[in-house]
Amino acid sequence: MPRFSIIVPSHGVAGRLSLALDSVLGQSFGDFELIPVCDAPDAPAGALAAGYAERDSRVTPVFSPPSAGLAGARDSGMRAATGTYLLFLDGDDTLAPGALTALETRLAETGEVDVLYAEHERTPWWEGEPANPAAPLLAKAPKGAFAPAEAPEITGVQLPVWSAAYRHGFLTAHELTFPTGHFTDIGFGGLVTVHAERVAVLRSVVVRHLLRRQGSRLNLPGEHHADLLEMTDLVLTGAAGRGFAGDLFGQLFAAVLKTAAHPARLPASARRPFFRRAAALYRRHRPAGFRRPGGSLGVQHRLLAAGAYTAFRALRGANRKLSAAAERIPRARGMRTRLYYRLQLRRRIDPHLAVYCAYWGRGYACSPAAIHAKAAELAPHIRSVFLVEPDQAHAMPPGIDHAVIGSRRAWQVLARAKYLVNNANFAEGVVKREGSVHVQTQHGTPLKKMGVDQSTYPVVAAATGSFTKLLGRVDRWDYNLSSNTHSTQMWERAFPGSYEQLEYGYPRNDVFCTATAEDVARVRRELGVPEGRTAVLYAPTHRDHRTGFDAGLDLEAFCEAAGDDVVVLLRAHYFYDRGVRRGSGRIIDVTAHRSSEDVCLAADALVTDYSSIMFDYANLDRPIVVYADDWDVYTETRGVYFDLMATPPGPVTRTPGELARVFADGSYASAASRSLRNIFRARFCQFDDGRAAERVVRRVLLGEPAETIPPVRPLAERVPAPAASPLVRS
User: Fold this and answer.
1) Residue 600: its pLDDT value, please?
2) Model confidence at 299: pLDDT above 50
3) Strand, coil or helix: 728
4) How far apart are CA 650 and CA 609, in angstroms?
5) What is d(CA 120, CA 154) in angstroms, rounded to the nearest whole number?
């Protein structure tokens, strides 16, 4: 029997779950079992937990459906637990180093107790000093073990569930489980206090609790606040006749009054009923001799006891309103344009207008273009305008309505559009209007650190600029697209916000399942690939610590060494697209070509370093070779989310000679290479089945229910676009 069972619910926090599990497995005290509670074995957290279980026998995942909520997840963990003491850790929190040793040492001092309360840190998600709100409270406790009535201010109502260790036998003897509802911590913690006979405190930090950027879900507006009254009734019913019932009563109704005094938490129609029901509970459970607090809180107690809602409403201030994000002053260039934009914002949103933009206006490209094309087919009633920079307007395909970024028309459509689709971000001055729908398509699967995860890498952080402004742009998103569960988890970390993740795949990658042999031949002709040649796409990513483009490889020498039939399609990162061709001889520069998807279709194999193009290209199931001559430098200066060298999509080479050799001897297309690619595809090609654009149009532009959207076709059933050349060369 292990000393501790650590139960970790994971719903909605799969992106940070590994940090929680690592914090437990890294403890110096090793006599524990770790129980991640996942939605299902095939859910993102389930797959992650299974990997940990394979590596460490102390990890035992269990499953609880999301419909069971947090209470059901914790109860499932309790049923599976065998430890003497139980700890509950939220999936995005961590155990402090040495926490289990500190708990065990304190239990040796106090003897067996029903509950051992401990301090915790509340860590800001971004900047700021951690706070330890439990420390002043626990400082008042007796030195050894004590009965709850000896320190009635220390209760499970005052402290979160994850700030304590609970004796398993005590919970079992009193049949204590987590009550269903949104305020399950208050209900469980209150009942634990009611039944506990011997408790103690540990005056050191055990848990580091992450304060989410979005804030606590419990503070959001909604009918769920009625659950607080259910928990109050449950706890006070159990506490009736106990000597510390008055303290529990005061703590619970302080929370009730805080909600009642915060009009934004309750819908207008629910405020009076909430108050009246709270008043009835107040009168029913008020212990004899209860002394009301002083000051404003005491006045609120009196009004609640009297059921005087009108007076209470006047006290809290009927005119308190939340600031609206749409009131931010737009930053259109020029005073006239700024005033024009503000005037347009006063006009009605056009429900049949969509605005698209790709790569900050570089033209008709990527997922916005794919969604635009599918919308013309499935939602022809939606008028569409593409935003482009002035030097790209001439390259727009015929018949595509477009506006030049910064022009009056561009600001007009930005102000009035119902739908706004981008693979980067619209200008900072663009206002998110109520009723508008912003779709962030992204433009790659993240290997390198993104968003706020870049903050600890000085070179990248300096180039990124203000993270506060970045997150202001994230707050405009309503939907964010993902092509695999890895991306879903990393976007959650890199771009914290309240948007909905759509695991629909990347629309730009649809063509990898829909293109024909004729399409491939046409693209190769357009790019100038000689008939019968093996086209190797070389697509290096940019280096944040360098200025200007450096191919990093002598491509002519590579062609000579790789074989007479090899030509290279050079595609530099779009940061270096200046419309200048760098090709000569057997090198064909395709950097300025509008469509990276076309370039991928034309290529028989891909060579890249750390570019996200590898994830897209993998959908074609063609050979990929990684050229990693500076992996250590790159990971140090930019940061990565996983070790590409451990799970590559094909052979890894580190010198020009090694790279040329895998092509010269054909091993780039060997069975071993295919085996690596199959593993990579299973992980990163989950949702790109050729119907991503259709799913987005149906869900977002046509408003179809999520359950009616076409499901993702399994990877084994997809047929990638055919390659032009045989994969095995003589």
Assistant:
1) 96
2) yes
3) coil
4) 12
5) 14
Q: Tokens in use for 280?
A: 């009835």
Q: Give the pLDDT band (50/70/90) at residue 333.
A: low
Has residue 326 got a pLDDT over 50?
no
Q: Is 500 left (phi over 0), alpha (psi -120 to 50) or beta?
A: beta
Q: Which of 304, 273, 312 lies closest to 286, judged by CA?
A: 304
Q: CA 326 → CA 421, 422, 696, distances in Å?
A: 18, 19, 26
What's this model's pTM, rounded to 2 decimal places? 0.67
3-state SS assignment for residue 369: helix
Q: Cα separations (Å) of 381 from 356, 416, 519?
A: 16, 16, 29
Lowest mean pLDDT among 68-72, 156-160, 323-327, 483-487: 323-327
Range 292-300 average pLDDT: 83
User: Is the per-residue pLDDT at 579 higher than 50?
Assistant: no
Strands of the sheet containing 62-63, edge to edge, are 62-63, 32-38, 4-9, 85-88, 164-167, 115-124, 199-211, 94-95
Smallest CA-to-CA distance from 46 within 34, 61, 66, 59 is with 61
As beta bridge partners, residue 211 has 124
Least confident piece of the model among 172-176, 220-224, 410-414, 501-505: 220-224
Contacts (Cβ under 8 Å, ≥6 apart) of 521: 724
Between 488 and 573, name the one with better pLDDT. Answer: 488
Instruction: Name, in order, each residue with C-beta under 8 angstroms of 450's C-beta and a sequence gap of 6 or more.
Output: 490, 491, 494, 495
How is residue 606 written in tokens? 């891909």
Which among 574, 567, 539, 535 has a CA at the least distance from the CA of 553? 539
Report helix angle 44-55 to 14-25, nearest 10: 20
- Reading the block at residue 179, the tokens are 């009550």
243 and 287 in contact (C-beta within 8 Å)?
no
Give DSSP secondary structure letters for 656-696. Answer: HHHHHHHHHSSGGGSHHHHHHHHHHHHHH-SS-SS-HHHHH
Nearest to 95 by CA among 162, 45, 30: 162
